Amino acid sequence: MSTERKIFRIRIFHKVLVTMMLVAFIPIAGALYIAVNQIERSWRDNVGQQIMITSQGLADRIDGWLDMNLRVLSQNAALPDIRSMETERQNPVLKALDDTYEWTYLAFTVAPDGQNVGRNDDNPLTQYGDRSYFRQVIQGSPVGQQVLMGRTSGKPALILAKPIHNTAQDGRNRLAGVIATAQHLVDVSDATAQARLGSTGYMMVLDPSRQLIAHGRPEEVEGQLQDYSWHPILSAPGADQRPVIIEHQGQRLVGFRQDIGLGWTILIQQNYEEAFAPLINARKDALTVGAVTLLLVVLIAFMLARQISSPIVKLTEAAEGLSRGKFEHEIVGTARGDEIGALARAIERMSVSIRIALERLRKPT
Q1: Is residue 57 part of a domain?
Q2: What total number of domains does the chain contain?
Q3: Per-position b or e across 9-22, b if 16+ CB within 10 A of its CB
């Protein structure tokens, strides 16, 4: 017992169908691809500009605040009473400085040996020789700084220090001491909390040692200083030049960093889905349009392929029958005005000619 195996053959229907699909779909797919790419480039630029503008706005506010505090220190360091390094002359100046700037809670001076000389409060004089801000100035830095956790506030506080110079007998400036102020970072914290992007974008401010100074979510900075050197934005290549896309704790984020005064760093991050929501929607719309277009192309190509191939198949069957002397096949398409119609009429004439020839052969001579 033998079985017949059906062998798939590529027929004219399949060729016409595939050709029409390719001819129609490739330009449409190309147009959609170009349009989506243009939208993507445009939106990436838009997101980048928004992030950098927001970051620069915060940077300007913090730099302005720092510059003001440093100028206050420099101006007071140049006063004769402060340069005298005498407690009785310095204390009134330090108290006035504290009273003038509400965010300052301590103003004090330190001798080169680290001993506290003057201060605005009535607390006992303290030894500050081991403090990093003091050592920075003593070692020649024009500015000393240190971020500490406030004992009463439970929030980061900043100590800034500047040198106090006196003129020696040889006309040279000599280091007479250090003037410093400790201030709450209320302005920095408020500015950071207010600088947001949508519902998921926020800013962070780090000091030179990568400790967290301020956060867009204020509760993140309460209790203790946090080391943020682990943050992926700090190590992301190019994140200081343009926003980059990073993966962090299972989330896809858009990140950017900007260096500002005193070696501080601003970090900004936003969820990718929110930042690029219009782009994601555009991609979905493009896929939907592409799928619908493909379906329509397939349907139209199928109908046209059938319209072209079906009469050719029937005409082929008719011609095959004529070659075997069978004339019962219907000749279809004779009324068409295209090449298929011309072929049908030719086969019809051939059928008539063959019948006439056969009838003549059958007549007795």
Answers
A1: no
A2: 3
A3: eeeebeebbeebbe
